[in-house]
Automatic annotation (TrEMBL):
One of its GO terms (cellular component) is plasma membrane. Signal peptide: none annotated. Pfam families: DctQ (PF04290). Its main location: membrane. InterPro entries: DctQ, TRAP_DctQ. Keywords: Cell inner membrane, Cell membrane, Membrane, Transmembrane, Transmembrane helix, Transport. This is Tripartite ATP-independent periplasmic transporters DctQ component domain-containing protein.
Length: 155
């Protein structure tokens, strides 16, 4: 179970990517041979792309591979960089907590209004729930990364 939790983003990301490729390939084949395009495949692929993107954000924080502009940061002494690093990570946590909150509000609104997808007729909240769920995962990954980097002096 620990191995699954440690590699959750990779497992789910690979699953979504494989499913997106398969669905898109199937749609291309049916469009080419049968001259029939299935609108639901494009819609489903788009929603899975959102899930995959949010998983990628969490994965980037997990491995410390998120983009940063270190032109000014690198010019500060190590003691100052530590506090800048803590500040920047806390700002990232605040951002994702805000995204989680507003994503939750959006999901609740969609559930209350009964919003459904155009092509598939499924509740939209099945797909937008990725924002609050994966924002929580990202906050966890940022927090773990922050503690680890502070312990090891990697800032």
């Amino acid at each position: 179970m620990k191995k699954i939790l440690d590699n959750l983003e990779e497992i789910l990301g690979a699953f979504f990517l494989a499913l997106m490729v398969s669905i898109s390939f199937f749609n291309v084949i049916t469009r080419y041979f049968f001259h029939f395009s299935m609108a639901f495949t494009e819609e489903l692929t788009l929603y899975m792309f959102v899930w995959a993107t949010m998983l990628g954000v969490s994965l980037a924080f997990k491995h410390g591979a998120n983009m940063d502009v270190s032109l000014l940061y690198d010019r500060f002494p190590k003691a100052v960089r530590k506090y800048l690093y803590i500040f920047l990570m806390l700002m990232s946590i605040i951002f994702f907590l805000t995204l989680m909150y507003w994503g939750y509000v959006e999901v609740c609104d969609e559930m209350q209004m009964g919003v459904i997808t155009e092509a598939m007729g499924l509740p939209v909240c099945y797909f937008t729930v990725s924002m609050p769920i994966l924002s929580i995962l990202t906050v966890v990954r940022i927090s773990v990364r922050l503690v680890s980097d502070l312990r090891n002096g990697n800032y």
